[in-house]
Amino acid sequence: MKKLILITLTLLSLFACAKPPVTRPEMALEPLSWWRSVSAQDDMGFRDIALAARQSMEYFNKLPPETAFSIGPMKVTALDMTVTLQNFLLIVENASLTDEQKVKQIRKDFDFYQSVGSNGWGKVLFTGYYEPMLSCRINSDDVYKYPLYKRPDDIVEIDLTLFGNDFPRNKLAARIEGRKVLPYYSREEIDQKKALNDRNLEMLWCRDLVDIYFLQIQGSGKADIGGGDIVSVLYDGQNGRQYKSLGKTLIDKGAITKENMSMPAIREYLRTHPDEVVPLLNQNPSYVFFRMDMGPSLGNIGVPLTPDRSIATDSRLLPKGGLAFIETQKPVIESGTIKEWIPFTRFVLNQDTGGAIRGPGRVDLFWGQGQAAELAAGYMQQEGKLYFLIRKQQ
């Protein structure tokens, strides 16, 4: 009887401590008291952090100074965010300070707010993304036959908040057909049923359908168009369909175990099962459109991404452009393979988002370009913690 009472009290305690789902920015971050403050060490010795910080400052400086942001329950302005970065730069660019002194000053001058994570207690899943290189051409032929589409002009964005707050999503992407509002074309309708044919939307023609799919997941990349010319292909919108993970699909069908799931594992499965490629890709109806540019890859705040320093989060909940701090694990790469994963902490800037990055318990770290970046991004699925910083009020 006593054992039963103890179990009941334990269960009641757990339910009492359960936190509600995070639906608003005010719920996503919680202030840290002094005794829970993080170490604030930077594994890269603050290298390149000033470059990333200045990119975010450029974003904030373009906004009206009174533009509101939420750092959890705290309301701040674009001007507050700029001042935070200015003061951060004064510390990290001070050559007279050692790294230890910089950390000490940051802990003194800034408040830390921790993400509540996926479980309400700070659990965050870190994945990675990189800038892929595709082989494409301006004109199609028997080799370069898969189109990379620019954004169609008939996508209509519907702001559902104008109709009330009872909808699970704030926006819809749709198309108009007669007097009907319909979902925009799915991946299968675009790639197999050729719904966008004869509309002059083919921006480039690429060699590999799978490469296009992974470009859509990464959000931007480079295209080698021959003759030594390389262009940027940047995210320019989406069809509004719900993203469905190919990795989860392969796990559910028993093709790859959860423990072995990674981007390289998905590529290898598709390579060895060519007949399954189209049906598997079509399981994800979400479709991304691009624009061609000669400049660098940009995040969702319109500034260039900095390798190892830019992160993508859910922009509905976490402050765009904000100064952040991450605690997770990184790979040790030797001879083109990952030898082990080791803990690290690092200052980063929240400069991007993604269709699969939803909730306060997800972060995507931008690794940059090249084989090492692809390897790290492809295998990264590490737990950790996420914090945001704001300059202490005087």
Give your account of this protein's structure.
The protein has 394 residues and is of the alpha+beta class. The chain is built from eleven helices and 19 strands. It has helices at 2-17, 25-28, 49-61, 78-92, 99-109, 187-191, 209-218, 246-252, 263-272, 277-281, 371-379; strands spanning 29-31, 68-71, 74-77, 110-115, 124-129, 133-137, 146-149, 156-159, 171-177, 180-183, 202-206, 220-224, 230-238, 288-293, 310-312, 323-334, 337-352, 362-366, 381-391. It has a six-stranded mixed barrel with strand order 5-18-15-17-16-19. A six-stranded mixed β-sheet has the order 7-11-6-12-13-14. A three-stranded antiparallel β-sheet has the order 8-9-10, with no helix packed on it. Strand 2 (68-71) and strand 3 (74-77) form a beta hairpin. Helix 3 runs antiparallel to helix 4 (78-92). The model is unreliable at 2-16 (pLDDT under 50).
